[in-house]
Amino acid sequence: MLDKNIRKLNKYIKPITKSGIKNFINGREVQAVSRATFENHSPVDGSFIAKVSSSDHRDIDKAAMSSAEAFKAWRNIDHKERKAILNSIADNILKYSEEIALLESFDTGQALRFTKKAAVRGAANFRYFAEKAIDAANGLSTPDTHHVNYTMKQAIGPVGVITPWNTPFMLSTWKIAPALAAGCTVVHKPAEFSPVTAQLLVKIAYEAGLPKGVWNTVHGLGESAGKSLTEHEEIKAVAFVGETTTGMHIMRQGAATLKRVHFELGGKNPVIVFDDADLDRALDAVVFMIYSLNGERCTSSSRLLLHQKVYNKFMKRLEERVKALKIGHPLDSNTEIGPLIHKTHQDKVMSYVDIAKEDGAKILVGGSIPKGKLSNGCYVNPILVDGVDKNMRVGQEEIFGPFLSVIKFKTEEEALEIANSVNYGLTAYIWTNNVGRAQRLARDVDAGMVWINSENVRHLPTPFGGVKYSGIGRDGGEYSFDFYMETKNISVAYGTHTIPKLGKLS
Ligand code: NAD
Protein backbone atom coordinates (compact mmCIF):
# COMPACT_ATOMS: atom_id res chain seq x y z
CA MET A 1 0.00 0.00 0.00
CA LEU A 2 2.82 2.40 0.91
CA ASP A 3 4.59 1.80 -2.41
CA LYS A 4 1.37 2.34 -4.31
CA ASN A 5 0.72 5.61 -2.47
CA ILE A 6 4.28 6.78 -3.12
CA ARG A 7 3.86 6.05 -6.83
CA LYS A 8 0.66 8.08 -6.89
CA LEU A 9 2.30 10.90 -4.92
CA ASN A 10 5.17 11.06 -7.40
CA LYS A 11 2.71 11.54 -10.22
CA TYR A 12 1.22 14.56 -8.44
CA ILE A 13 4.40 16.06 -7.07
CA LYS A 14 6.59 15.97 -10.18
CA PRO A 15 4.80 18.80 -12.02
CA ILE A 16 4.88 20.92 -8.86
CA THR A 17 8.62 20.39 -8.46
CA LYS A 18 9.11 21.28 -12.11
CA SER A 19 7.02 24.45 -12.20
CA GLY A 20 7.61 25.67 -8.64
CA ILE A 21 4.92 27.23 -6.45
CA LYS A 22 4.05 30.74 -7.57
CA ASN A 23 1.60 33.38 -6.46
CA PHE A 24 -1.91 33.31 -7.85
CA ILE A 25 -3.06 36.86 -8.52
CA ASN A 26 -5.98 38.04 -10.62
CA GLY A 27 -6.73 34.57 -11.90
CA ARG A 28 -3.25 33.55 -12.99
CA GLU A 29 0.05 32.26 -11.67
CA VAL A 30 2.81 34.84 -11.38
CA GLN A 31 6.29 34.94 -9.92
CA ALA A 32 7.11 37.28 -7.07
CA VAL A 33 8.08 40.73 -8.37
CA SER A 34 11.57 40.29 -6.91
CA ARG A 35 11.74 36.76 -8.45
CA ALA A 36 13.00 35.61 -5.04
CA THR A 37 12.12 32.08 -3.89
CA PHE A 38 12.58 29.83 -0.89
CA GLU A 39 12.82 26.05 -0.88
CA ASN A 40 10.16 23.74 0.47
CA HIS A 41 11.25 20.29 1.70
CA SER A 42 9.25 17.33 2.96
CA PRO A 43 9.52 16.52 6.68
CA VAL A 44 9.18 12.84 5.71
CA ASP A 45 12.73 12.50 4.40
CA GLY A 46 13.99 16.01 3.76
CA SER A 47 13.46 15.67 0.00
CA PHE A 48 13.09 18.81 -2.09
CA ILE A 49 9.50 19.57 -3.11
CA ALA A 50 9.61 22.92 -4.86
CA LYS A 51 10.87 26.47 -5.04
CA VAL A 52 8.22 28.80 -3.65
CA SER A 53 7.75 32.50 -4.48
CA SER A 54 9.03 34.64 -1.64
CA SER A 55 6.80 37.69 -1.87
CA ASP A 56 7.10 41.17 -0.43
CA HIS A 57 4.96 44.31 -0.17
CA ARG A 58 4.84 44.73 -3.98
CA ASP A 59 3.18 41.36 -4.48
CA ILE A 60 0.79 42.00 -1.62
CA ASP A 61 -0.07 45.35 -3.17
CA LYS A 62 -0.92 43.71 -6.50
CA ALA A 63 -3.05 41.09 -4.78
CA ALA A 64 -4.83 43.61 -2.55
CA MET A 65 -5.60 45.93 -5.48
CA SER A 66 -6.89 42.98 -7.52
CA SER A 67 -9.11 41.96 -4.58
CA ALA A 68 -10.36 45.52 -4.18
CA GLU A 69 -11.32 45.68 -7.87
CA ALA A 70 -13.01 42.27 -7.78
CA PHE A 71 -14.92 43.23 -4.62
CA LYS A 72 -17.02 45.76 -6.57
CA ALA A 73 -18.74 42.99 -8.52
CA TRP A 74 -18.49 40.06 -6.06
CA ARG A 75 -20.21 41.94 -3.20
CA ASN A 76 -23.29 42.45 -5.38
CA ILE A 77 -23.33 39.23 -7.36
CA ASP A 78 -26.69 37.41 -7.40
CA HIS A 79 -26.81 35.33 -4.21
CA LYS A 80 -27.88 32.26 -6.14
CA GLU A 81 -24.86 32.59 -8.39
CA ARG A 82 -22.56 32.96 -5.39
CA LYS A 83 -24.10 29.85 -3.87
CA ALA A 84 -23.66 27.92 -7.12
CA ILE A 85 -19.98 28.88 -7.39
CA LEU A 86 -19.26 27.88 -3.79
CA ASN A 87 -21.02 24.56 -4.32
CA SER A 88 -19.03 23.88 -7.44
CA ILE A 89 -15.79 24.61 -5.51
CA ALA A 90 -16.96 21.93 -3.02
CA ASP A 91 -17.58 19.47 -5.87
CA ASN A 92 -14.18 20.21 -7.31
CA ILE A 93 -12.42 19.71 -3.96
CA LEU A 94 -13.93 16.23 -3.77
CA LYS A 95 -12.79 15.53 -7.33
CA TYR A 96 -9.20 16.26 -6.24
CA SER A 97 -9.48 14.55 -2.83
CA GLU A 98 -6.84 11.88 -3.44
CA GLU A 99 -4.30 14.42 -4.69
CA ILE A 100 -5.03 16.75 -1.76
CA ALA A 101 -4.59 13.96 0.81
CA LEU A 102 -1.31 12.65 -0.62
CA LEU A 103 0.24 16.08 -1.11
CA GLU A 104 -0.84 17.32 2.33
CA SER A 105 0.67 14.23 3.99
CA PHE A 106 3.98 14.61 2.19
CA ASP A 107 4.17 18.38 2.75
CA THR A 108 3.18 18.37 6.45
CA GLY A 109 4.01 14.87 7.72
CA GLN A 110 0.48 14.19 8.88
CA ALA A 111 -0.72 10.63 8.47
CA LEU A 112 -2.86 9.81 5.46
CA ARG A 113 -5.62 8.44 7.72
CA PHE A 114 -6.17 12.07 8.82
CA THR A 115 -5.37 13.97 5.62
CA LYS A 116 -7.87 11.76 3.76
CA LYS A 117 -10.51 13.72 5.65
CA ALA A 118 -9.06 17.11 4.66
CA ALA A 119 -10.89 17.25 1.34
CA VAL A 120 -14.14 15.97 2.82
CA ARG A 121 -14.04 18.63 5.54
CA GLY A 122 -12.89 21.31 3.09
CA ALA A 123 -15.76 20.51 0.74
CA ALA A 124 -18.20 20.46 3.68
CA ASN A 125 -17.05 23.94 4.67
CA PHE A 126 -17.77 25.30 1.18
CA ARG A 127 -21.09 23.47 0.95
CA TYR A 128 -22.22 24.72 4.36
CA PHE A 129 -21.42 28.36 3.61
CA ALA A 130 -22.85 28.07 0.08
CA GLU A 131 -26.21 27.38 1.70
CA LYS A 132 -25.79 30.27 4.10
CA ALA A 133 -24.77 32.76 1.37
CA ILE A 134 -28.41 33.48 0.51
CA ASP A 135 -29.18 34.67 4.05
CA ALA A 136 -25.87 36.31 4.89
CA ALA A 137 -27.24 39.86 4.48
CA ASN A 138 -30.29 39.26 6.70
CA GLY A 139 -30.85 41.78 9.49
CA LEU A 140 -33.29 42.78 12.19
CA SER A 141 -36.29 45.08 12.25
CA THR A 142 -36.53 47.31 15.33
CA PRO A 143 -39.56 49.62 14.88
CA ASP A 144 -40.00 52.74 17.02
CA THR A 145 -43.12 54.98 17.33
CA HIS A 146 -42.25 57.29 14.46
CA HIS A 147 -39.62 55.32 12.58
CA VAL A 148 -39.09 51.87 11.34
CA ASN A 149 -35.48 50.73 11.69
CA TYR A 150 -33.99 47.80 9.94
CA THR A 151 -30.51 46.42 9.67
CA MET A 152 -28.71 44.72 6.84
CA LYS A 153 -25.33 43.05 6.80
CA GLN A 154 -22.79 43.93 4.14
CA ALA A 155 -19.42 42.44 3.29
CA ILE A 156 -16.62 44.36 4.99
CA GLY A 157 -14.39 44.40 1.88
CA PRO A 158 -11.26 42.55 0.79
CA VAL A 159 -9.89 40.53 3.72
CA GLY A 160 -6.56 38.92 4.52
CA VAL A 161 -6.47 35.28 5.59
CA ILE A 162 -3.23 34.08 7.20
CA THR A 163 -2.98 30.36 7.96
CA PRO A 164 -0.54 28.08 9.83
CA TRP A 165 1.06 24.81 8.73
CA ASN A 166 -1.06 22.47 10.80
CA THR A 167 -4.03 21.04 8.84
CA PRO A 168 -3.42 23.82 6.30
CA PHE A 169 -5.94 22.70 3.68
CA MET A 170 -8.91 22.34 6.02
CA LEU A 171 -8.09 25.53 7.92
CA SER A 172 -7.82 27.59 4.74
CA THR A 173 -11.26 26.45 3.59
CA TRP A 174 -12.66 27.14 7.05
CA LYS A 175 -11.68 30.80 6.74
CA ILE A 176 -12.08 31.44 3.02
CA ALA A 177 -15.50 29.79 2.46
CA PRO A 178 -17.42 32.09 4.88
CA ALA A 179 -15.52 35.15 3.64
CA LEU A 180 -16.59 34.45 0.05
CA ALA A 181 -20.14 33.59 1.14
CA ALA A 182 -20.34 36.95 2.92
CA GLY A 183 -19.33 38.76 -0.30
CA CYS A 184 -15.74 39.54 0.70
CA THR A 185 -12.79 38.99 -1.58
CA VAL A 186 -9.71 37.31 -0.14
CA VAL A 187 -5.92 37.56 -0.14
CA HIS A 188 -4.58 34.33 1.36
CA LYS A 189 -1.06 34.04 2.79
CA PRO A 190 -0.39 30.36 3.52
CA ALA A 191 2.30 29.18 5.95
CA GLU A 192 5.77 28.95 4.42
CA PHE A 193 6.23 25.36 5.72
CA SER A 194 3.13 24.04 3.91
CA PRO A 195 2.47 25.87 0.62
CA VAL A 196 1.54 22.89 -1.57
CA THR A 197 -2.18 22.33 -1.01
CA ALA A 198 -2.83 26.08 -0.74
CA GLN A 199 -1.74 26.36 -4.35
CA LEU A 200 -3.91 23.46 -5.40
CA LEU A 201 -6.90 24.92 -3.53
CA VAL A 202 -6.87 28.28 -5.29
CA LYS A 203 -6.53 26.57 -8.68
CA ILE A 204 -9.45 24.29 -7.84
CA ALA A 205 -11.54 27.35 -6.99
CA TYR A 206 -10.85 29.06 -10.32
CA GLU A 207 -11.46 25.85 -12.22
CA ALA A 208 -14.87 25.82 -10.52
CA GLY A 209 -15.73 29.21 -12.01
CA LEU A 210 -14.67 31.81 -9.45
CA PRO A 211 -14.32 35.25 -11.10
CA LYS A 212 -10.73 36.51 -11.28
CA GLY A 213 -9.39 38.54 -8.37
CA VAL A 214 -11.98 37.25 -5.90
CA TRP A 215 -9.33 35.04 -4.30
CA ASN A 216 -5.62 35.75 -4.53
CA THR A 217 -2.90 33.63 -2.93
CA VAL A 218 0.46 35.15 -2.08
CA HIS A 219 3.27 32.97 -0.74
CA GLY A 220 6.11 34.18 1.41
CA LEU A 221 7.53 34.63 4.85
CA GLY A 222 5.50 35.96 7.74
CA GLU A 223 7.75 38.95 8.41
CA SER A 224 7.52 40.20 4.81
CA ALA A 225 4.45 38.95 2.91
CA GLY A 226 2.37 38.35 6.06
CA LYS A 227 3.29 41.66 7.63
CA SER A 228 2.57 43.64 4.44
CA LEU A 229 -0.84 42.02 4.16
CA THR A 230 -1.78 43.11 7.68
CA GLU A 231 -0.64 46.67 6.91
CA HIS A 232 -2.31 47.17 3.54
CA GLU A 233 -4.91 49.96 3.40
CA GLU A 234 -7.28 48.04 1.10
CA ILE A 235 -7.45 45.03 3.41
CA LYS A 236 -10.26 45.68 5.87
CA ALA A 237 -9.91 42.70 8.20
CA VAL A 238 -7.44 39.93 8.97
CA ALA A 239 -8.46 36.40 9.91
CA PHE A 240 -5.40 34.83 11.47
CA VAL A 241 -4.67 31.34 12.76
CA GLY A 242 -1.29 30.80 14.37
CA GLU A 243 0.83 31.45 17.41
CA THR A 244 -0.16 33.82 20.16
CA THR A 245 2.98 35.94 19.79
CA THR A 246 2.33 36.32 16.04
CA GLY A 247 -1.21 37.48 16.85
CA MET A 248 0.28 40.17 19.08
CA HIS A 249 2.52 41.35 16.21
CA ILE A 250 -0.44 41.44 13.83
CA MET A 251 -2.46 43.56 16.23
CA ARG A 252 0.37 46.12 16.32
CA GLN A 253 0.94 45.95 12.56
CA GLY A 254 -2.74 46.49 11.82
CA ALA A 255 -3.20 49.40 14.22
CA ALA A 256 -2.34 52.14 11.74
CA THR A 257 -5.09 51.00 9.34
CA LEU A 258 -7.56 50.04 12.12
CA LYS A 259 -7.77 46.43 11.03
CA ARG A 260 -10.55 44.28 12.36
CA VAL A 261 -8.91 41.07 13.55
CA HIS A 262 -10.04 37.56 14.29
CA PHE A 263 -7.44 35.45 16.08
CA GLU A 264 -7.31 31.71 16.59
CA LEU A 265 -4.15 31.19 18.61
CA GLY A 266 -2.39 28.68 20.83
CA GLY A 267 -3.73 26.38 23.51
CA LYS A 268 -2.73 24.26 26.51
CA ASN A 269 -6.01 22.49 26.85
CA PRO A 270 -6.97 20.34 29.84
CA VAL A 271 -8.75 17.02 29.73
CA ILE A 272 -10.08 16.39 33.24
CA VAL A 273 -10.85 12.76 34.10
CA PHE A 274 -12.79 12.04 37.32
CA ASP A 275 -12.98 8.68 39.06
CA ASP A 276 -16.68 8.27 38.17
CA ALA A 277 -16.11 8.66 34.41
CA ASP A 278 -16.50 5.98 31.76
CA LEU A 279 -12.77 5.28 31.81
CA ASP A 280 -12.70 3.20 28.62
CA ARG A 281 -14.19 6.01 26.55
CA ALA A 282 -12.08 8.60 28.40
CA LEU A 283 -8.91 6.66 27.58
CA ASP A 284 -9.73 6.54 23.88
CA ALA A 285 -10.44 10.27 23.86
CA VAL A 286 -7.31 11.19 25.84
CA VAL A 287 -5.07 9.25 23.44
CA PHE A 288 -6.83 10.58 20.35
CA MET A 289 -6.85 14.23 21.38
CA ILE A 290 -3.09 14.49 21.90
CA TYR A 291 -1.56 11.93 19.55
CA SER A 292 -3.74 12.36 16.45
CA LEU A 293 -2.40 14.80 13.83
CA ASN A 294 1.02 14.40 15.53
CA GLY A 295 -0.26 16.52 18.42
CA GLU A 296 0.05 19.50 16.07
CA ARG A 297 -3.46 20.73 16.69
CA CYS A 298 -4.57 23.80 18.61
CA THR A 299 -7.43 21.91 20.29
CA SER A 300 -5.26 19.01 21.49
CA SER A 301 -5.67 18.07 25.15
CA SER A 302 -2.02 18.41 26.08
CA ARG A 303 -2.62 18.34 29.86
CA LEU A 304 -4.29 15.31 31.39
CA LEU A 305 -5.71 16.13 34.84
CA LEU A 306 -6.33 12.75 36.43
CA HIS A 307 -8.18 12.00 39.66
CA GLN A 308 -5.96 10.33 42.28
CA LYS A 309 -8.37 7.43 42.87
CA VAL A 310 -8.01 6.14 39.31
CA TYR A 311 -4.50 7.42 38.72
CA ASN A 312 -2.49 4.19 38.80
CA LYS A 313 -5.02 2.09 36.92
CA PHE A 314 -5.57 4.69 34.18
CA MET A 315 -1.86 5.45 33.80
CA LYS A 316 -1.01 1.79 33.30
CA ARG A 317 -3.47 1.52 30.42
CA LEU A 318 -2.43 4.87 28.99
CA GLU A 319 1.23 3.87 29.01
CA GLU A 320 0.44 0.69 27.08
CA ARG A 321 -1.51 2.63 24.48
CA VAL A 322 1.19 5.26 23.95
CA LYS A 323 3.85 2.57 23.60
CA ALA A 324 1.71 0.88 20.94
CA LEU A 325 1.24 3.99 18.73
CA LYS A 326 2.38 3.29 15.19
CA ILE A 327 5.01 5.74 13.99
CA GLY A 328 5.92 5.67 10.35
CA HIS A 329 5.76 7.06 6.85
CA PRO A 330 2.62 9.21 6.68
CA LEU A 331 1.55 7.60 3.39
CA ASP A 332 1.42 4.17 5.03
CA SER A 333 -2.23 3.63 5.85
CA ASN A 334 -1.29 1.93 9.17
CA THR A 335 0.64 4.96 10.42
CA GLU A 336 -0.81 6.88 13.33
CA ILE A 337 2.07 9.31 13.91
CA GLY A 338 4.17 10.81 11.13
CA PRO A 339 7.07 13.27 11.21
CA LEU A 340 6.67 16.75 12.67
CA ILE A 341 6.46 19.64 10.26
CA HIS A 342 10.12 20.74 10.26
CA LYS A 343 13.49 20.17 11.86
CA THR A 344 13.12 23.36 13.94
CA HIS A 345 9.84 22.07 15.33
CA GLN A 346 11.33 18.62 16.01
CA ASP A 347 14.09 20.39 17.99
CA LYS A 348 11.51 22.46 19.88
CA VAL A 349 9.43 19.42 20.89
CA MET A 350 12.55 17.45 21.88
CA SER A 351 13.83 20.35 23.99
CA TYR A 352 10.80 19.91 26.25
CA VAL A 353 11.97 16.40 27.14
CA ASP A 354 15.01 17.91 28.88
CA ILE A 355 12.93 20.73 30.32
CA ALA A 356 10.52 18.19 31.84
CA LYS A 357 13.38 16.23 33.40
CA GLU A 358 15.09 19.34 34.75
CA ASP A 359 11.83 20.43 36.38
CA GLY A 360 11.50 17.03 38.09
CA ALA A 361 8.89 15.30 35.92
CA LYS A 362 9.30 11.72 34.72
CA ILE A 363 9.35 10.65 31.07
CA LEU A 364 7.25 7.48 31.09
CA VAL A 365 7.25 6.82 27.34
CA GLY A 366 9.20 8.14 24.34
CA GLY A 367 11.28 11.26 24.28
CA SER A 368 13.79 10.01 21.75
CA ILE A 369 14.22 10.25 17.99
CA PRO A 370 13.51 7.03 16.05
CA LYS A 371 16.54 5.37 14.51
CA GLY A 372 16.98 3.58 11.19
CA LYS A 373 14.70 4.32 8.24
CA LEU A 374 12.93 7.19 9.96
CA SER A 375 16.05 9.05 11.01
CA ASN A 376 16.05 11.21 7.84
CA GLY A 377 12.67 12.68 8.74
CA CYS A 378 11.51 14.94 11.57
CA TYR A 379 10.11 12.11 13.68
CA VAL A 380 9.88 11.90 17.47
CA ASN A 381 8.76 8.94 19.54
CA PRO A 382 5.48 10.05 21.19
CA ILE A 383 5.99 11.30 24.70
CA LEU A 384 4.09 10.67 27.94
CA VAL A 385 5.24 12.61 31.02
CA ASP A 386 4.18 11.75 34.55
CA GLY A 387 4.49 13.64 37.84
CA VAL A 388 3.89 17.07 36.33
CA ASP A 389 3.13 20.02 38.57
CA LYS A 390 0.87 22.73 37.14
CA ASN A 391 3.64 25.33 37.37
CA MET A 392 6.25 23.36 35.44
CA ARG A 393 6.96 24.58 31.93
CA VAL A 394 5.52 21.37 30.45
CA GLY A 395 2.35 22.16 32.40
CA GLN A 396 2.18 25.73 31.12
CA GLU A 397 3.64 26.10 27.62
CA GLU A 398 2.23 25.02 24.28
CA ILE A 399 4.54 22.31 22.89
CA PHE A 400 2.42 21.44 19.84
CA GLY A 401 3.59 17.86 19.42
CA PRO A 402 2.78 14.31 20.55
CA PHE A 403 3.58 15.24 24.16
CA LEU A 404 1.17 14.62 27.04
CA SER A 405 1.76 16.05 30.53
CA VAL A 406 -0.12 14.29 33.33
CA ILE A 407 -1.10 16.10 36.55
CA LYS A 408 -2.76 14.38 39.53
CA PHE A 409 -5.63 16.05 41.43
CA LYS A 410 -7.75 15.26 44.50
CA THR A 411 -10.83 17.52 44.38
CA GLU A 412 -13.04 19.28 41.88
CA GLU A 413 -11.81 22.66 43.17
CA GLU A 414 -8.21 21.64 42.65
CA ALA A 415 -8.94 20.38 39.13
CA LEU A 416 -10.52 23.71 38.24
CA GLU A 417 -7.62 25.66 39.70
CA ILE A 418 -5.09 23.62 37.69
CA ALA A 419 -7.18 23.87 34.51
CA ASN A 420 -7.34 27.66 34.78
CA SER A 421 -3.71 28.16 35.80
CA VAL A 422 -2.43 28.73 32.23
CA ASN A 423 -2.48 31.80 29.99
CA TYR A 424 -4.49 29.96 27.35
CA GLY A 425 -8.21 29.15 27.14
CA LEU A 426 -9.16 27.41 23.92
CA THR A 427 -10.86 24.10 24.76
CA ALA A 428 -11.53 21.92 27.81
CA TYR A 429 -12.67 18.30 27.98
CA ILE A 430 -14.47 17.04 31.09
CA TRP A 431 -15.04 13.37 31.86
CA THR A 432 -17.48 12.63 34.69
CA ASN A 433 -20.91 11.06 35.11
CA ASN A 434 -21.86 13.58 37.78
CA VAL A 435 -24.15 15.96 35.87
CA GLY A 436 -23.94 18.82 38.36
CA ARG A 437 -20.14 18.67 38.47
CA ALA A 438 -19.89 18.58 34.68
CA GLN A 439 -22.08 21.68 34.46
CA ARG A 440 -20.21 23.55 37.20
CA LEU A 441 -16.86 22.92 35.56
CA ALA A 442 -18.15 23.74 32.09
CA ARG A 443 -19.36 27.09 33.45
CA ASP A 444 -16.20 27.94 35.40
CA VAL A 445 -13.36 26.65 33.21
CA ASP A 446 -11.51 29.28 31.14
CA ALA A 447 -12.22 28.03 27.61
CA GLY A 448 -14.10 29.09 24.51
CA MET A 449 -15.26 25.52 23.86
CA VAL A 450 -16.01 22.70 26.30
CA TRP A 451 -16.76 19.07 25.53
CA ILE A 452 -18.33 16.88 28.22
CA ASN A 453 -17.66 13.16 27.91
CA SER A 454 -16.41 13.66 24.39
CA GLU A 455 -13.35 14.38 22.31
CA ASN A 456 -13.47 17.38 19.98
CA VAL A 457 -16.33 16.77 17.56
CA ARG A 458 -16.84 19.75 15.30
CA HIS A 459 -20.36 20.85 14.37
CA LEU A 460 -20.17 23.62 11.75
CA PRO A 461 -22.90 25.96 13.10
CA THR A 462 -21.34 26.13 16.59
CA PRO A 463 -18.98 28.96 17.59
CA PHE A 464 -15.24 28.20 17.43
CA GLY A 465 -12.66 30.27 19.29
CA GLY A 466 -10.81 30.85 22.53
CA VAL A 467 -10.43 33.15 25.51
CA LYS A 468 -7.33 34.64 27.19
CA TYR A 469 -4.21 34.12 25.02
CA SER A 470 -6.04 31.63 22.80
CA GLY A 471 -7.73 34.18 20.64
CA ILE A 472 -10.20 36.91 19.91
CA GLY A 473 -13.56 36.34 18.27
CA ARG A 474 -15.53 33.35 17.09
CA ASP A 475 -16.24 31.79 13.77
CA GLY A 476 -18.55 29.02 12.61
CA GLY A 477 -22.12 29.42 11.38
CA GLU A 478 -23.51 32.92 11.80
CA TYR A 479 -20.50 33.90 13.91
CA SER A 480 -18.33 33.96 10.79
CA PHE A 481 -20.61 36.56 9.21
CA ASP A 482 -20.27 38.78 12.29
CA PHE A 483 -16.60 38.99 11.44
CA TYR A 484 -16.69 39.25 7.66
CA MET A 485 -19.62 41.68 7.52
CA GLU A 486 -20.63 45.10 8.80
CA THR A 487 -24.11 45.78 10.19
CA LYS A 488 -25.81 48.87 8.80
CA ASN A 489 -28.92 50.42 10.37
CA ILE A 490 -31.47 52.17 8.15
CA SER A 491 -34.08 54.38 9.79
CA VAL A 492 -37.22 55.37 7.84
CA ALA A 493 -39.67 57.96 9.21
CA TYR A 494 -43.45 57.46 9.03
CA GLY A 495 -43.64 61.27 8.64
CA THR A 496 -45.39 61.71 11.96
CA HIS A 497 -42.66 62.94 14.29
CA THR A 498 -41.88 66.54 15.14
CA ILE A 499 -38.63 67.85 13.68
CA PRO A 500 -36.97 70.51 15.88
CA LYS A 501 -37.21 73.88 14.15
CA LEU A 502 -34.09 76.01 14.42
CA GLY A 503 -33.73 79.52 12.96
CA LYS A 504 -37.44 79.98 12.49
CA LEU A 505 -38.85 83.43 13.29
CA SER A 506 -41.73 83.04 15.72
P1 NAD B 1 2.86 31.10 13.20
O1 NAD B 1 2.19 32.14 14.04
O2 NAD B 1 4.32 30.98 13.26
O3 NAD B 1 2.51 31.32 11.66
C1 NAD B 1 1.18 31.38 11.20
C2 NAD B 1 1.13 32.24 9.95
O4 NAD B 1 1.45 33.58 10.30
C3 NAD B 1 2.11 31.83 8.87
O5 NAD B 1 1.47 31.94 7.61
C4 NAD B 1 3.22 32.86 9.00
O6 NAD B 1 3.93 33.07 7.82
C5 NAD B 1 2.43 34.08 9.40
N1 NAD B 1 3.21 35.13 10.10
C6 NAD B 1 4.31 34.99 10.87
N2 NAD B 1 4.72 36.20 11.31
C7 NAD B 1 3.84 37.13 10.82
C8 NAD B 1 3.72 38.54 10.94
N3 NAD B 1 4.58 39.27 11.66
N4 NAD B 1 2.70 39.16 10.31
C9 NAD B 1 1.80 38.44 9.59
N5 NAD B 1 1.88 37.10 9.43
C10 NAD B 1 2.88 36.44 10.05
O7 NAD B 1 2.12 29.72 13.59
P2 NAD B 1 2.50 28.25 13.07
O8 NAD B 1 3.74 27.82 13.77
O9 NAD B 1 2.43 28.23 11.58
O10 NAD B 1 1.23 27.42 13.61
C11 NAD B 1 1.16 26.84 14.87
C12 NAD B 1 0.35 27.71 15.84
O11 NAD B 1 -0.98 27.92 15.34
C13 NAD B 1 0.15 27.07 17.20
O12 NAD B 1 0.38 28.02 18.21
C14 NAD B 1 -1.30 26.64 17.20
O13 NAD B 1 -1.90 26.52 18.47
C15 NAD B 1 -1.93 27.72 16.39
N6 NAD B 1 -3.24 27.29 15.87
C16 NAD B 1 -4.38 27.76 16.46
C17 NAD B 1 -5.63 27.34 16.03
C18 NAD B 1 -6.89 27.82 16.70
O14 NAD B 1 -7.96 27.61 16.15
N7 NAD B 1 -6.83 28.45 17.85
C19 NAD B 1 -5.72 26.45 14.95
C20 NAD B 1 -4.54 25.99 14.36
C21 NAD B 1 -3.31 26.43 14.83
Q: What structural keywords apply?
A:
binds nicotinamide-adenine-dinucleotide, Aldehyde Dehydrogenase, Chain A, domain 1, 6-stranded mixed sheet, 2 domains, 7-stranded mixed sheet, 21 strands, alpha/beta, 506 residues, Aldehyde Dehydrogenase, Chain A, domain 2
Question: Could you describe the 3D structure shown?
Answer:
With 506 residues, the chain is an alpha/beta fold. It has two domains: 2-265 and 470-489, Aldehyde Dehydrogenase, Chain A, domain 1; 270-452, Aldehyde Dehydrogenase, Chain A, domain 2 (3-Layer(aba) Sandwich). Helix content is 41%, strand content 19%. It is built from 16 helices and 21 strands. Strands 13-14-15-12-11-17-18 form a seven-stranded mixed sheet, sandwiched between helices. Strands 8-7-6-9-10-20 form a six-stranded mixed sheet, sandwiched between helices. Strands 1-2 form a two-stranded antiparallel ribbon. Helix 3 (79-95) runs antiparallel to helix 5. It is globular and about 90 Å long. Nicotinamide-adenine-dinucleotide is lined by residues 162-166, 189, 191-192, 222-223, 226-227, 230, 241-243, 246, 249-250, 253, 264-267, 298, 398, 400, 426, 466, 470-471.
